[in-house]
Amino acid sequence: MDMREKQPYDSFRDGILALIGPNLIYSRVKYLGMQINEDYRGKEFVLVPVMLGGMVFCADLSRRLSIDAIIDPISINSYEGTQSTGKFRLLLDTQTDLAGKDVLVIEDIVDSGRSLVYLKEHLKKKGPRSIRVAALLSKPERRIVSVEADYTCFTVPDLFVVGYGLDYEGKYRNLPFVGVLDKEKL
Ligand code: IMP
Ligand code: MG
User: Fold this and answer.
1) Ligand lying nearest the CA atom of residue 166
2) If you measure from the C-alpha of residue 67 to the centroid of ligand 2, how many angstroms do you get, rounded to a whole number?
3) CA pseudo-torsion sign 33, 61, 141, 132
4) Percentage of the chain with pLDDT > 90?
5) Model-level pTM?
6) Minimal CA–CA distance to 46: which of 129, 108, 102, 123?
7) What is the number of the ligand 1 atom nearest to the C-alpha of 159?
């Protein structure tokens, strides 16, 4: 089947099966923007995108907002090793004084949940009034620690997904859709 004929948008690449197309992402992010406008009206609002995965989601979501928002990225890395230890290293920290502010962490995906636990603990030390999390995707089957985003756009099955910020070996972040990588076809 030639998917190119079936898809009215750019959601096809060899070796990648589109799971969530750009139109659906657009609608969901727009709706989330409306919700956040309501929930954060009148607050001292700071968006903290988790780089690099959260950048595309944050760029689109932030442009749906009619409230004032500071955007202050953060970046973490899990320690190198044969197994993911769940230990993290901070590569880039936020630059704004978060004390008393309402922080919304922007994540690409909540998988095991470990990076989210680390990030929340780290940001909590800065004394914000509140910390919530918006995640584009959630893979609940993979959860190791009990943590959930406050806002989740889509739940996905236990498959390795790329696009719209998510990468495989640094690639595919720029795809305008979320798709499943068929590593054998690459
Ligand atoms: P955690 O396991 O919830 O700590 O997720 C850590 C990070 O792994 C996420 O923020 C993503 O950057 C990355 N990740 C997890 N699942 C996927 C996936 O299916 N595709 C691409 N990156 C992923
Ligand atoms: Mg990430």
Assistant:
1) 1
2) 25
3) negative
4) 82
5) 0.92
6) 102
7) 19
